[in-house]
Specification:
With about 325 residues, chain A is an all-alpha fold. Chain A has helices at about 1-5, 10-30, 35-60, 70-85, 90-110, 120-140, 140-145, 160-180, 185-195, 195-200, 205-230, 240-255, 260-280, 285-295, 300-315, 315-324, and strands at about 150, 235. With about 300 residues, chain B is mainly alpha-helical. The longest helix of chain B is centred in the first third of the chain and has 30 residues, at about 1-30. Chain B has helices at about 1-30, 40-55, 60-85, 95-120, 145-165, 170-180, 180-185, 190-215, 225-235, 245-265, 270-285; strands at about 135-140, 140-145. The chains are: A mainly alpha (about 325), B mainly alpha (about 300).
């Protein structure tokens, strides 16, 4: 029994169910919370959950620690915004363009830095992120620089936006689950754990690494574009390194390399940051300290703590002793 | 005459960059990780200098070594608490040590920025000058007195460091551990203590660089971001982990930026440095001056 529970597929399934449960809870929230301000906060936290899932696909599942998720979101948002600003493209065209464009950018970037890993990959993506931000905030004629761009909105209703974000989140989650359950997911994990070993077993490492890059980039870009239509303003601030730091802290606190972790982390971190802000603006101190503590002592994050605690309850005492 | 002016000013900034980047290169050389909190060592040094000299009212010449000591203590503490898992068999991140280092140092950078932001305040603070004379001319070149004296101190420190690493016993231990950790410990070198020392030196240099520039830059909590990014560029240009490469690349970048800002574009100066970083990593990962290729 214990052996079966430890199978990757079973773990993934319970992980997926927990994530779906969280989305179900989120779906009920508008019945109890009606103030547009509170709903807005949850919407922003769902935006961060998308970024966290996109980054986790790259870092947690494929082992490529990019430092550019916020920059991808910014570029996605600008794709939609610029198409609308210069060529009056409707959102029905602008949003898919953001997804496709960012998938291409991610694929190209992944292709370019294919052989880099670890600190080299982080440095390159960090540079890419900063270049993108500097270029956008300095090309005043084309992007209006730091003033930002106004973007039309999809709808006026807050509740409507809430369910739109929730639907997109659910779609991403299901898509990721199906991918991780298929051989693609196992290839990714194999590449993460031992890319040379994976290559010797006949896995096309180039193809699957660039696929992960493109997908992650598309998820982040779509999240950014959607957020741009929600806030009706796109500015280079979306791509600040601080935002990337927030995304990373969400994933590490929630549990890297899982489906529930990024979701849990994003909701917990963003919602409690609103609360900590009222106490006196200490939210970023708390989260950055938590990231260090979690990375140092609880690598599996909150979700890992929950699962190990659950499996300890179910196993016999001597097995529990062994695993601790 | 503009060109000569730019050359001298570029070299002066190159010296400050070198002070930052050498520490980063030493850390990379010995642990093969990038310290993403390096800019915050610089920021802590600048703040220590300003606060000690203003709040305690002591002479800037005392505040300077205090700031350097604060940086050294911070570097040592970071190594003791956060870097040990990288080499002392820490099971759960064992296959992803590089990634652990990225997350932890990135988190540390955020933590330090926000701690200072909360405790001291988000507004820039201005430090006292080391000397009274603000501007004077040597021949046709106008120089800022504070910058010149800071550059002199940097040059002295860098020369001392070069001697220390090349000749002294501890410096040779650092070289040995950077070349081969296991081999060094088999030869009786305390690799753990050497790693702590490297972090302390790196912290000291970065903090000193921040303190020396504090009267010029008016530090605010996020002041470390730009020098940190420059140090990444320098370390990559000079060949990751190469101390001499970092020194040369720092001077090169200082001069290059001075000319680029005037003749090409000021706004895109930093973006161009980063583009250089990406290109070097992709096409010449051993760096412009690197003598041997490192695994990438």
């Amino acid at each position: 029994m214990s052996a079966r529970r430890n199978l990757w597929a079973n773990r993934l399934r319970s992980d997926f169910r927990a994530a779906l449960g969280m989305l179900a809870v989120l779906a009920c929230v508008p019945f109890f919370v009606t103030s547009p301000y509170s709903l807005g906060i949850v919407i922003v936290s769902m935006y961060f959950a998308m970024l966290a899932m996109g980054w986790n696909l790259l870092a947690g599942f494929t082992g490529q620690f990019s430092l550019a998720p916020a920059a991808f979101a910014m570029l996605g948002a600008y794709t939609t915004g610029l198409l609308n600003y210069h060529w009056q493209a409707p959102l029905a065209l602008g949003l898919p363009a953001a997804v496709l464009g960012m998938a291409l950018v991610g694929w190209a970037l992944g292709r370019l830095i294919l052989r880099l890993r670890g600190p080299y990959l982080s440095l390159t993506t960090l540079s890419f992120a900063e270049i993108a931000r500097v270029v956008i905030s300095n090309s005043h004629e084309f992007t209006r620089g730091d003033q930002g761009l106004n973007v039309p909105t999809l709808m006026q209703s807050r509740v409507g936006y809430y369910y739109l974000f929730l639907a997109v989140l659910a779609f991403t989650l299901v898509g990721l689950y199906l991918l991780m359950r298929s051989k693609v997911g196992r290839f990714w994990l194999a590449i993460r754990d031992d890319s040379i070993g994976a290559e010797t077993r006949g896995i096309d490492v180039v193809r699957y690494k660039t696929l992960a890059f493109g997908l992650s980039c598309a998820i982040c870009g779509f999240a950014g574009a959607l957020y741009g239509t929600f806030s009706q303003l796109v500015s280079p601030e979306l791509g600040l390194l601080l935002q990337t730091g927030l995304v990373i802290s969400m994933v590490v606190i929630g549990g890297i390399g899982t489906l529930t972790g990024p979701l849990l982390g994003a909701l917990l971190v963003y919602l409690s940051s609103e609360w900590l802000r009222e106490i006196g603006g200490i939210q970023l101190i708390v989260f950055s300290a938590l990231v260090i503590v979690f990375a140092r002592f609880f690598r599996t994050g909150l979700w890992g703590l929950v699962t190990s605690w659950r499996s300890r309850l179910k196993t016999t005492p001597d097995v529990a002793k062994e695993s601790s | 005459m503009l060109a000569l002016d730019l050359l001298v000013n570029g070299l002066i900034f190159g010296l400050f960059y070198a002070l930052m980047a050498v520490g980063l290169a030493m850390i990379f050389g010995v642990l093969k990780v990038v310290n993403f909190a390096h800019g915050e060592f610089y920021m802590v040094g600048a703040y220590a200098y300003v606060l000690v000299s203003l709040k305690l009212g002591v002479s800037p010449w005392i505040a300077l070594p205090v700031a350097a000591a604060a940086g050294a203590a911070l570097g040592w503490l970071v190594e003791r608490t956060l870097m040990r898992p990288l080499y002392s068999g820490y099971a759960s991140w064992s296959i992803m040590k590089d990634e652990y280092a990225v997350v932890v140092t990135f988190g540390l950078s955020l933590l330090l920025i926000n701690l200072v932001d909360k405790i001291v305040g988000p507004y820039p603070v201005r430090g006292p000058d080391l000397i009274e004379t603000s501007r004077f001319a040597i021949g046709p070149i106008m120089l800022n007195g504070q910058k010149l004296i800071a550059a002199g101190i940097s040059l002295a420190i860098l020369t001392g460091l070069a001697w220390f690493i090349k000749k002294s016993l501890w410096g040779r231990q650092i070289q040995a551990v950077a070349q081969n950790r296991l081999g060094a410990s088999l030869a009786g070198i305390d690799a753990t203590r050497t790693t702590s020392m490297i972090f302390a030196i790196a912290g000291l240099l970065a903090a000193l660089s921040g303190a020396l520039l504090a009267p010029v830059i008016n530090p605010s909590p996020d002041v470390g971001a730009f020098p940190a990014i420059k140090s990444y560029v320098i370390v990559v240009l000079g060949g990751m982990g190469s101390i001499w490469g970092a020194m040369i690349a720092a001077l090169f970048l200082g001069v290059f930026e001075a000319f680029f800002a005037v003749y090409v574009s000021y706004a895109y100066r930093d973006a161009f440095g980063l583009l250089l970083l990406i290109l070097v990593l992709i096409f010449r990962p051993q760096g412009l001056f690197g003598e041997k290729g490192r695994e990438v």
